[in-house]
Amino acid sequence: MKIMMLKKSLAFFSALTLAFAMVSCEEDNSGDNSAANYVGLESYQTVELTDGETVVVEGKILASDVSGEDRTFNLVVDPTTTHGAANYSVPTSVTIPAGSKEGIYEVTIVGNSLVDGNKIVVGLEPAADLNQTTFYGTYSNGVLTGAGTAKSTFNLYRPCASVRARLSITFDNYPEETAWELYDSSLNLIDSGGFNADGSAITGYAALGFADRSTFSVVKCLAPGDYTFVIYDDYGDGMFTSATVIGRYSMNNLNNGAALFSASGDSFGANAVHEFTIQ
After folding, report:
1. Do 174 and 258 fall into the same domain?
2. What's residue 152's pLDDT?
3. Which has the higher per-residue pLDDT, 53 or 101?
4. CATH code at 246?
5. Candidate from 69-78, 95-104, 141-150, 243-252 with smallest mean pLDDT
6. What is the domain count for the chain?
7. Do 201 and 116 belong to one domain?
8. CATH number of the domain enclosing 54
9. SS3 label, residue 190
10. Please, which residues have CB within 8 angstroms of residue 256's CB and are 6 or more apart in sequence?
């Protein structure tokens, strides 16, 4: 397989607030997070790769202060990772060299069993001698200060020259009743889910391993144009189990964060139709 070295990092603007999983390297009783010596992982980055391709991407660990000695921190793969374990490798540790505020680690990712929107989540391992807390970190002009959340996430996608859109469906207590279709402006079927092989009958999502009240999500690459989304309920009562158990569904433009449509599962019976435009 072709190995492609990708040197991907977030673009830092003059004053950009990023999310970091923060670790205090020394005891700080002042309550002023900015005064302590912190390290944190870059919040996230998007990784594009094709099916079967292997890429190597760089992750960063950043420190608020310089040390005269090398500083090594253990890395762990978070259980929220969705890419198959056989298709990536993460080092066990990362080192910030003496005299530096930055360390680099490499993650190897293979595009086998690739699903758009899969992710690899890397965190810093808790240690007894470290006061690990979750903060936001502000990294500006080479200065990192502590201030609220997260770990480093590598979001995986196939290359997309247009717009990525995420469809999410949260089921009620009957995922076996739900199916959907997506059509282009000429009403050509471009994708669907929850049907049998020839599309003639609803088989739902329970047969695919989805539990009651779980969420199905898929990312699509959509060219500019008009689209029609149809959601079906095989029983004819929508995704409604009770007043406290109601399904939901939505589609969002991942390029700009805009909602393309969103609705509650009690808003339809046998089916509901939503038209939207990708610009």
Report:
1. yes
2. 87
3. 53
4. 2.60.40
5. 141-150
6. 2
7. no
8. 2.60.40.2030
9. strand
10. none
